Amino acid sequence: MLRTVNRVxxxxxxxxxxxxGGAVLVAxxxxxRRWHVDLGSWWPFDGRHDVLLSRADxxxxxxxxxxxxxxxxxxxxxxxxxxxxxxAQLRRRRLREVRVDTGDGESATLRxxxxxxxxxxxxELLAGVDRAHVRLGGRRTAPEARVGLLLEAHAExxxxxxxxxxxxxxxxxxxxxxxxLPTEVRMRAVRHRAERVT
Length: 198
Prior knowledge:
- This protein folds into 2 domains: 2-59 and 66-90, no CATH class; 97-189, Cation efflux protein, cytoplasmic domain (Alpha-Beta Plaits).
- 46% of the residues lie in helices and 18% in strands.
- The protein is built from 6 helices and 5 strands, in the order ααααββαββαβ.
- A 3-stranded mixed sheet has the order 3-4-5. A two-stranded antiparallel sheet has the order 1-2.
- Strand 4, helix 6 (157-175) and strand 5 (183-189) form a beta-alpha-beta unit.
- Helix 5 (112-124) packs antiparallel against helix 6 (157-175).
- 13% of the residues are buried.
């Protein structure tokens, strides 16, 4: 979705800048008079000394009650959308596919979501792990994993981490033909009620 938003935003901004730049160029070079072209009454510029916004245009709505709230609201919305867009660019992108070396000089592609699902399912089978969430990032040829484990109350974190590395992550690395699979693991414990001892 972010890729589509980027393309639409850049396309609209580019089109607006090209149209505005072309209009200013036509007015600045006085091409309308030189080429004897009548652009009609809708054309905003009269000649090379005309301005983009006249004083009357700039002050027309100042005394209206709705003017300043509309301007401030519009600018606030633009700032919020720009901040959302900038933060979305900084967010880590999810890997779509992993390149698998087949060993014969060729390569195949593996859907990253499939590999994530397999690693998560295998991690959930480990003793002491209630749920697992896996996300792949990085490049197609050098993926990086982020694993979130929700541990049961009785689980030993060190043992769960060792088994995750030796089993689920090692199987994923070997099956994808990767030399290494750097992984960041975050663990949390399941919330549970305190048990009474009598």
